[in-house]
Design a protein that fits this description.
Blueprint lengths: L1 H36 L1 E4 L2 E4 L2 H11 L5 E4 L5 E4 L2 H28 L3 H6 L1
Antiparallel strand pairs: 1-2, 3-4
Helix pairs in contact: 1-3, 2-3
Length: 119
């Protein structure tokens, strides 16, 4: 009798562990997509619209008319219009962050393994 009472508990625990593993994998995948979505081309260079680049670009717009930025491939790129560069950075970041937020929010709202696989 005790054995049959433990089985549902073990099955439920295993189901919950599987659900958590699936949710964590979906979050990890969403984070990877977000990270890749931050990469964009500008004036022949490849940049990442992360917080550090956005902050640096913002600082430059306050002090410089033009600037040389080092892109992801370590190439020096002359940025003729730092304001336009910052605008593009912020647009790329905002779009990627909103998609990432929506994906993670949907994952968090999903309560069943079946729902997770259909998200």
């Amino acid at each position: 009798m005790e054995q049959s009472m433990e089985l549902p508990s073990i099955e439920k625990t295993l189901e919950q562990a599987s659900l958590l593993a699936t949710m964590n994998e979906r979050r990890r995948s969403a984070a990877m997509v977000f990270d890749q979505s931050l990469i964009f081309g500008y004036q022949g260079g490849l940049f990442k619209a992360d917080a550090m680049t956005c902050g640096f670009a913002k600082m430059l717009t306050e002090h410089e008319a033009y600037v040389v930025m080092i892109d992801l491939n370590k190439n020096p790129i002359m940025i003729q219009d730092p304001d336009a560069f910052l605008t593009e950075l912020m647009a790329v970041y905002t779009e990627a962050a909103m998609r990432y937020y929506a994906e993670v929010d949907q994952i968090n709202k999903t309560r069943s393994k079946e729902g997770l696989t259909n998200v």
